[in-house]
Amino acid sequence: MLKTYLTTRVIVEKEILNRNPKQYSLPLSLHVALSTGLCRKAVHMERKNTLKRKADAAELPETYLINENSEPLAPKRTKPAPPRHGRRLFLQAELHWHDQYGRRRNERVKLLVDSGCSGPILNKDLVQRRHLPWVKRDQPISVLTADGAEMRDAGAKYTEETIMRIADHQEELTWEISCLEKGIDGYLPISWLEQHNPDIQWDTGKLV
């Protein structure tokens, strides 16, 4: 600090002597006093700036990193929470139909409510195991999955009319037939949701 004081004083004295002597025709003692005051003021300002820089550095949050030049970098990012997943919505239903001999049949089924599916679909395994009657299309159609691929064995056949009962609700439906995920008997599609607009208790998975 003493070295800075003396260096600054010499610079200020030279500056005073280099100026117009007529403008600054003061006694030498007054020149010295003036230069001394300016030096002290310069040293005081330097000390004040140093303390401010230290205070600014101390106020930086811990999430900021400091590089080798004591400059703040971008804030340190924390790892975000992973996406939250819910349970898929299944409805328990009963299907009723007549077999090829005219006998009444029924089956409790587990149906996935799938707004990404365009039409009702039954699992091919269920249709074969319970001998549900079906009809072959004259012209097969393409039934696509969510990624745009064609569903396996879908679009060529569909069931005859069945009666579906969910709680107090009952209706007649025909179903596309396709290979579905094991443990799922069928899909209730967006067309069914649009038609009935059901009140669903999402936390329990039941119709209200």
Please provide a written account of the structure.
Mean pLDDT is 78; it is low at 2-6 and 21-35. This protein is α+β, with helices and mostly antiparallel strands and 208 residues long. The protein starts with a helix and ends with a strand. The protein contains four helices and 13 strands. The longest helix is centred in the first third of the chain and has 31 residues, at 28-58. The chain folds into two domains: 2-74, no CATH class; 90-207, Acid Proteases (Cathepsin D, subunit A, domain 1, Beta Barrel). The protein has helices spanning 2-18, 28-58, 124-129, 190-196; strands at 64-66, 72-75, 90-98, 104-113, 121-123, 134-136, 157-159, 162-166, 169-173, 176-178, 186-188, 200-201, 206-207. The radius of gyration is 43 Å and the shape is elongated. The strands form four sheets. Strands 9-8-3-4-11-5-10 form a seven-stranded mixed sheet. A two-stranded antiparallel sheet has the order 1-2. A hairpin with a 5-residue loop joins strand 1 and strand 2.
